[in-house]
Amino acid sequence: MFATPLAVSKYIDNDPYSYHQQRRKVVAVYLLALVAMIVIFGWLLSEQYKQEIIDAESRIIARANVVNEWAEGVFAQSGQALFGLTELIGMQGMPDANNSFMLQRTLDNLTVFVPLVDEIAILDPDGQVLLATQRGNRNGYINIGKTAFFNAFKQNGQRELMTPLYWSESEQQYYLYHGRRLESPTGEFAGVVLASITPRVFANALQQMHVYEGESIALVDSDSKLIARHPAPPEPLPIGMNITSSRASQKRARELARGEFAWSLTAVSPIDGQERLFRIQRVSDYPMLVVVGVNFRQTLAAWRQRAWILTLVMAVIALLGAWGARHYLNRLLLSYQLRQRIEEREQARAEAQVAAAAFETHLGILITDPQGIILRVNATYTRITGYREADLVGKYFRMFSSGLHSDAFYRRLWKRVMDTGHWEGELWSQRKNGEMFPEWLTISAVYSDDKTLTHYVATLNDISERKAAEQEIHQLAFYDPLTGLANRRLFIDRMGNALKELCRRQRCGALILIDIDNFKQINDTLGHYTGDQLLQGLARRMQQMLRDTDTLARLGADEFAVLIEGVDSCPEKTAQLAEKIAYKLLATLNEPIVVGEEHLRVSGSIGITVMENNEHSVDDYLQQVDMALFQAKISGRHRVCFFAPSMQTALLAHVKLESDVRLAQVEQQWQLHYQPQVNHHGTITSVEALLRWQHPERGLVSPGEFIPLLESTGLINDVGEWVLENACYQLARWSQQPLLSQLTISVNISPLQFRDEHFLERVQGVFTRTQAPLDRLKLEVTETLFVEARDDARDKMLALKAQGVRFSLDDFGTGYSSLAYLAHLPLDQLKIDQSFVHQVLDSPANAAIVESTIALAKSLNLEVIAEGVETNAQQTWLWAHGCHAYQGFLFGRSSTAEAIEQRLSRH
Ligand code: C2E
Ligand code: MG
Ligand code: MG
Q1: Burial of 202 (0-12, 13-18, 19+ CB in 10 A)
Q2: Which atom number of ligand 1 is nearest to the Cα of residue 889?
Q3: Residue closest by Cα to atom 17 of ligand 1
Q4: What is the model's pLDDT at position 206?
Q5: Is ligand 1 within 6 A of the CB of residue 287?
Q6: Among 673, 672, 685, which Cα is nearest to 887's?
C-alpha cells in the first residue's frame, strides 16, 4: 500500500530524514490507531454482548419465576384438595360401607372443582385402592404398595409427596401423582390419598402464556422428562421425552445435588435444535423444573447487527485512515521527489557549468557525431589549429590530417577506437596556415546508457613546444653545447652499441682520442672566448673530414674522440685505417685557423685503440685510448700513438712512481747538480741548479719524469724550497771563495711553486737562513707563470727583484706569449728553448724565430741565453746572430758542485 517508487528510493535512502523513516512512522501510527480502535470497539461490543446476555437472562428469570409460581399454585390446588380429603377421612374414617358413598361424592366433586386433578383415589396401608373417582378406572391404579413412593409415606412418615412423570400402563399415558398420608386417630399410617394430574393440564396452561420469538417455556420432571412445552413443537408433544443431553443432565444433577433451585445454562434444544440460553428453576420441593429458554441467535440479533455496523464503521475508519496515511505519504513522496528534482537540476546546472568550464580548457576539444562529422570545437582548438568553429562544423574530422601518416596508420587508429573506445598517441597535424605541428591526440567514443555510440570526443594538445623542449633537453643531455658534437654520455652510449654490433657483425671498430696540445695556454693567454671559437672551428673541421657514420664527440675541454664503427673484420686493417684518419685529423688540426684577429695554429696528440671484441668493456677501451693519448703526449706531443698492452705497465709504473716520490721527500733522496752556462769565450759565468732523484732501485732519475708528479701531488713547494735552500747555501759558500765568488746560480721555480701564497715567506726564510748573495741568484720561470694572475706574479717578482734577485724566462718559444707583454715583466734574461736551438740549422722557420727572439730581447734590454747547445755549429750560428751566452752538453753536462769547483779551479 505504501510502496516507494524505485526511482526515488536511492535518493530517499540517502536522505538523513529519509522517506522510509517517515513512512515507517506513519504506518506505525496508523496501525496503533487501528489497534486502539479495534480494542475500544471490541470492548464496547463485548460489554454490549454481556449486557444482552444479562438482559436475556433477567427476562427468562422473570419468566421462569412466573411459571414457577403458577406451577406451585397448581400443586397447591391439588395439595389443598388432598388436604381437605384427608381432613374429611380423619373425621369420617377410612371408607367403608357407611361413608363410601359420601366420600365417593366428595372425590367426584373434587375432580370437578379442581379441574387439573384428573382422578383421586384413597389407598389403604397396603397400597390397595379403597375408593376412587367415578370416571377413574379403579384398576387403573396399580398396586403401588411396593413402590418407593408409597414406602415414603408408609415407612418414612412422609406427609405429602409428588412423583415425577409416571407412565400408566392402563391409561397408556403419563401422570403426575400427588399423594398425602392418611393417619388413624392414633397417628398410625392408615393409607394414602392420591391425586393423578395429567400433564396436559400444564400444556394447556402454558399455551395461554405469550412467548416471544425464539423463546420457549417448558416443564420437566426431575428425570428431565418433558411435561409440557410452549410453543408446542411441530410434532405432537412428546411428553415424557428426555430432553437433556448428558452434559446438561450432569450439570442438572450437580446443581440438584448442591440443593440449587435455579441456574442458567446454554445448550442446544433437543426439541427444535436451536441454541438457547436456558433458565432452569425448581418448582419448590416438587420434582418439577421450569425451563425457560431464549434463542441465542435472536437474543443477540440486535447486538450482532450493531457489531456488524461497528465492524463496518471500523473498516470504513480503517480504510479512511489508510487512505489518509497513503495520501499523506504520497504528498511526502512528492515533496521528496520535488526536492530531489530541484537538487538534480541544481547538480545538472553545476555539472553543466563545470562541463562548460572544462570544455574551455587548455586542451583543444573537438566533438563529432558517430559518423565523424564535427559538431563542436572549443576556443583552444581554434587557437591551436587556426580553424574557427564555423570552418569545422559539419565537416569530416579526418580531412585535417597532415598527410605525414599513412592511410594504414589512420585505419589502425580508428580500428582501435572502434574496438576499445579509445586511442591516444602522438601524431602530426596541419594548422589552417599549412604549418605542421606535433600533437598529442586522444579520441574517446561516447556511448549512451543503452550502449549506442553517440559521439566521439577528441582532445588535442599542441606538443610542439614540449617537443622542442624535449629536443633541447636531449641536446643538452647528449650533446656538447659549445660544439654541438656528441658529449661523453652519448659517446659512451654509442660505444656500447658499437660493441654489441661488433660482436654481431664480426667487424672491428676504432677509437681515436684527440687532445689539443697546450690548449690551456691558448685559453689562458687569449681568453676563453677565443678558446671557445678555436674549439668550435676545430670541431667543424674534424666533422667535415669524417664520415657521417663516424661519431665525433667532445669529451672534455680540449679532448675530442672519434668512434669508427664496422670498419673491417681484420684488426690490422682497422688499425691502418684508424691511423690514416688520425694523421688526417692531425693535419687538419695543424692548419692555421683564424679566430677573430688571431691566426692560430695548434697541434694535437692522438691516441688510438682498436676495438676487436666485446671482451673489454666501454670503460676498458676508453682507458686504453687514454693511455695511448698519454703516451702521445709524453712522447713530445703532436703525434699519434696506438695503445699497446705495455702502456698499461707504464701506467702502473706511474702509480708506483707517485708513491716512491712521496717516500723520496720523506727520506730526502734528492741531490742537486749544476750545469755550467758559459759566455762566448767559453768561460763559466753561471750554473743552473738541476734536481736529481737518487732512487734506491733505479739510480738517478731525471726531473722530466718526476717534476710533473711533484706538481700534481703538491710536493713541489717543499722540494722546491729544498732546491732553493741548497742552491743558496752553495752560493753563500762560493761567495767566500775568490775563484767562485762571481758565479751566478739559476734555480728553476715551478709556476705552481711561484703562485703559492706562502712563496715569498718561504723564499725569505731561505734567504735569511743561507745569507746568500742575492745579486748572484737567478730564478728561472716559464711562460705559463704569466697566463694566470700575471699581476700577482709580477708583484712577487718585483718584491724579490728589490732584494737583487734576477729572473730568467726559461724554455722561451714553446709557449704562446707574445713578446710584446714581456716588456711589462721584470725579466733579466730570455732562455731560448733547446727545441729551437736543436733545429736552428735545419729549419729556416725555427732559425727565423730564434733570430727575431734575439733581436727582440736585445731591444728590450734582456740578456739572451741559448740552452741545449750541443754542437759548435749551433754555437757559431747563435754567436753570429747575437746570442753570446750558452748552456748545453757542448759546455758540460750537469754535475755535482764539487765537480764544478774542480773544473773551475783547473781553469
Ligand atoms: P730546463 O730548466 O730547461 O733545464 C735544462 C734541461 O736541459 C736539463 O735537463 C738539462 O740536463 C738539459 N740539457 C742541457 N743541455 C742540453 C743539451 O745540450 N742537450 C740536451 N738534450 N739537453 C740538455 P734536466 O736536468 O733533465 O731537467 C729538465 C727539466 O726539469 C728542466 O728543464 C727544468 O724545467 C726541470 N727542472 C730541473 N730541476 C728543477 C728544479 O730544481 N726545479 C724545477 N722546478 N724544475 C726543475
Ligand atoms: Mg731551466
Ligand atoms: Mg729550459
Answers
A1: buried
A2: 18
A3: 868
A4: 83
A5: no
A6: 685
Rounded distance between C-alpha atoms, residue 523 and residue 26, angstroms:
98
> What is the distance in A from the centroid of ligand 1 to the CA of 601?
27
Helix (H) or strand (E) holding 18: none
Name which residue sits closest to atom 15 of ligand 1, judged by CA.
888
Q: Best mutation site among 867, 871, 893, 894 for ligand 1, i.e. most ligand atoms within 8 A of its Cβ?
A: 867
Distance CA 78, CA 160 (A): 11
Q: Is 840 helix (H, G, I), strand (E, B) or coil?
A: coil
- pTM of the full structure: 0.42
Q: Which residues of the chain have pLDDT under 50?
A: 1-13, 16, 138-139
Ligand 1 pocket member 605 (CB < 6 A): no
pLDDT tens digits for range 550-564: 999 999 889 999 999
Residue nearest atom 11 in ligand 1 by C-alpha distance? 894
Q: What is the pLDDT of residue 234?
A: 67
**How far is Cα 226 from Cα 251, in angstroms, rounded to an integer?**
17
Cell numbers for 491 = 659517446
DSSP string covering 561-610: EEEE-S--SSHHHHHHHHHHHHHHHHHHHHS-EEETTEEE---EEEEEEE
Residue nearest (by alpha carbon) to ligand 1 atom 29: 704
pLDDT in tens, 655-689: 888 889 999 999 999 999 999 999 999 999 999 99
Enter the DSSP assignment of 783.
Answer: G
Mode of pairing for the β-strands spanning 453-462 and 364-368: antiparallel
Supply 833's cell numbers.
728553448
> In Å, how far from its chain's centre is CA 459?
27
Q: Give the three-state DSSP class for 309.
A: helix
Q: Which pLDDT belongs to residue 135?
A: 59
Model pLDDT for residues 729-739, shown as the tens digit of each residue: 999 999 999 88
